[in-house]
Every structure is written in C-alpha cells, then in structure tokens.
Amino acid sequence: MRLKNSLKLFVILLCLSGMNISLAQQKKWTLRECVEYAIENNITVQQFELDLENAMVDKKDAIGNFVPSLNANSSVGFNKGLTIDPTTNNFVTENIVSANASVSSNLTIFDGMRNFNQLNRAKLSSLSARYRLEGMKDDIRLSVSNAYLRVLANRETANTFRAQFRATEQDLKRTKELVENGVLPEGDLLEIESTAATQEQQIINAENNTLIARINLAQLLQITDYENFDVVDEGYIIPESNILNYTPKEIYNKSLGVVNVIKASEVTVELAEKDLSIAKGARYPTLGASMNYNTRYSELNVDESFNTIPFVEQLWLNDGISYGFGLNIPFLNGFGVRNNIERRRIALDRQRLQYESDKLDLETNVNQAYADVKGSYKSYEAATKSVEARRLAYQYAKERYDVGLMNSFEFSQAQARLDNAEAELIRAKYNYIFNLKVLEFYFGVPIDEL
C-alpha cells in the first residue's frame, strides 16, 4: 500500500512538473518583461553594479579617514644570557621571561582639507557610477524596445500577407470555375496562380523575418531557447503624444537633466575639480595628534622580599602614557606637488571639454531624433494614404475583373501594388513608434512604456 501511494504521488508530481514546463514554454513576453529581464541578466550591467559597489566601499574608506586609528600590540619573550630587563633597563645575565603591551592611537587634525575633499570625491564617484549604470540600462531599454518592435512589425506583415493570400485563394477558385466553363482563357488562371505563389513567398519571407527578429531579441535577453521564446502580440497602435508641441531646443534643455550619460559626464567634471583640490592640499602643513599607552612585565622585577611581583600588579606599576602633536611642513619635494597640481588642472580642462562635447552630441541626437519623428510621421501619413488609394484601386480593379472588363495580369498588378503598400504602411508605423519613443526618452518618458 505504501509503495502504491508513493508511485501515485510520483505520477502526480511528474504531471505537475510537465504542466509547469508547458506553461513556461507557452509564456509570451511583454515589452516590460523583456526589458526587466535583459537588465537583470546583462553581464555589462552586472559589471557596472560591481563598480557601484566598489565606489561605495571607497566612500567608507573616505569616512574612515576622519576616525582616529586605534591599535593594540603585545609580546612575550624569553631571554638567556646578557639582556636588558624591560622594567629597569639594566643589563642582566639571568634567564628572564618578559612581556610588553601597548595601545596607540593617531588622529589627523589638519591635512589641507584633503580628507574632506576625498570624502566629497568618494560621494561624487558613487554618484557617477550610479549614473553610468543607469545609462547602460537606458541603452539596453532602447535596444530591446527596437528589437521587440521589429518582431511585432514582421509578425503583422506576415498576418497581412496571409489575409491577402486567403482573398487570392477565393479569386483562384472562382477563376478555375470560369476557365473550366470556358468563360475565361487559361492564361487568366495562370496569372492568378502566379500571384498566389508570389504571396506564398511573401508569407514565407515574413515568417522567416519574424523568426530572425525573435532570435535577435532572445539573444539580447541571453535566452537560448529560441523555439519556445515569443512575445505578446499586442497589436500596437500609434500612441498619442504631444512631444512635437515642444521645440528641439526645449527637448534638449530637458534632456540635460534626464539623460544619464550627460549627468555622469557632469559629475566627472566635479570629480576632476575635487582631484585638483586634493592635489592643492598637499601644499599645506599636516598636523596630527598621537597617544600611546604601554606597560611591561619581567620575572626579575621583585619586591623587598625578593619575590617576583605578580603579573597584574606589574602591569599597573610599569605602565605609562605618552601623547603629543606632530607637524609636517612641505618645503621642497622635487616640484612633485606643483607638477601634480598642474596635471590635475590639465585633467580638469580636458574633462570640461569632454562635457561640452557630450552636450553637443546630445543636442545633435535630439535634433536628429526630432527630425526622424517628423519624417517618419510624414512617411506614415503618406503610406496610409497610399494604402487607402491602393485599396480603392484594387476594389475597382476587382469589380472590373469580375465582369470581364480587366484581364488577370492587370488585376494581379493592382493586387501586388496593394500588398506592397500595406507592407510599407506596417514598416512606417513601427518605425514612427520607435522614433517617437526615442524622442520621448530624451524628454524623460520611460522607454519601456508603449
């Protein structure tokens, strides 16, 4: 009975496991899920996250520079022959067991504000690492969104070709009947069959393009199960947006406070300024304080009865405290401080130039994105009008073909022009959607929201 129940439980668990595998294979990914998964599993992002962790450790180091150092030391020794008694500093020739212990502390009081500047630099460094991490995530969002939209565009194109092929099949069936009844010449049938074959080839190409687009998206997500990977067929429509109500200059000004690459570049200038301040701090004197407590034990340290004084009692009798201040004034160091200051000043000038260059690149990208949106929207409008016109022309051609006023070749040409126009409309639509999201990204709208 127990064996039977165990087998039953095993079968149930196996069925549940199979159901989970099937559900996992049937999962279709949304754009948000793709973006989040890509960010979570991207190796470069993980490396940038380690850079951020390292920057946080550097910040803790900078904070530690303000804390006094505290160290303890102890030793026990056995000496034979001529040696020095640590409690009397006299030479003795007897065997001796001795012990020493000390506690010391040091504190930097003034170092030309280098510790303060180092702490501020560490804070800026962690901020820069965070901006660079977020900038890498932004790049991933753009790449994944573009790949995701390519999948949808190719799939929609394939669906359109399939619908057109179904209509052609009806025309093919009707034409066969008319040819068999002697109403139409056999050449008309051959022309319709050629059109159907062309549409089948278009379907195959669109399906292959969809597969390639899915594989490319899966690779971005580092998913190797291409066969079972798929996205949600959400059928995106043109999103509403008021981004074109703003001028490129207004979008650029907003992007300066939004784009993480620019924010990271700006922080890098501040880092270079702190490096220069730290280098200048080396010209100032350094003032420090120190304290030391020490005690010792010797088995030769005896009382009036020539008995060795107990260990703990000796620690109290032989202890001492020393403290003091130290001042270090730099005068001549081979021009090292001066040269280091000059190097840091040059590095600061270089970083300021890089920051200006980054802003110019951003302004160029914003203007290009703005032009792409306007251009792609005009293309979409033109493609929409073209489809409407081609559809009317096709309907008119079909009516003429049905009553024998148009031959099959002319009818096939009208159908082919409609097929091409609808494919171009789909391409223009998704191209406009992506360009729109890129421009909105510069304005601070999250790229994973379509």
Q: Would you mind describing this structure in some detail?
A:
The chain has helices at residues 2-26, 31-41, 43-64, 114-180, 186-220, 248-255, 260-281, 311-317, 336-402, 408-442; strands at 69-79, 83-84, 91-92, 96-110, 286-298, 320-328. With 450 residues, it is of the alpha+beta class. It has 2 domains: 29-67 and 111-284 and 330-442, Outer membrane efflux proteins (OEP), CATH 1.20.1600.10; 69-110 and 287-329, no CATH class. The longest helix is centred in the first third of the chain and has 67 residues, at 114-180. Mean pLDDT is 85; it is low at 1-25.
Q: Number of folding domains?
A: 2
Q: What's the total helix number?
A: 10
Strands of the largest sheet, in order across it? 1-4-5-6
- Alpha-carbon Rg, integer: 40 Å
- CATH domain class of the largest domain: Mainly Alpha
- Quote the average pLDDT: 85
SSE string, helices as H and strands as E: HHHEEEEHHHHEHEHH
Number of strands: 6
The CATH topology name of the largest domain reads Outer membrane efflux proteins (OEP)
* Low-pLDDT windows of residues: 1-25
Question: Helical content, roughly?
Answer: 55-70%
Strand content: 5-15%
The 3D shape can be described as: elongated
Which structural class do you get from the secondary structure elements? alpha+beta
CATH hierarchy: architecture of the largest domain: Up-down Bundle
Q: How far is the N terminus from the C terminus?
A: 58 Å
Biggest sheet, open or closed, and with what strands and sense?
A: 4 strands, antiparallel
Name of the CATH homologous superfamily of the largest domain = Outer membrane efflux proteins (OEP)
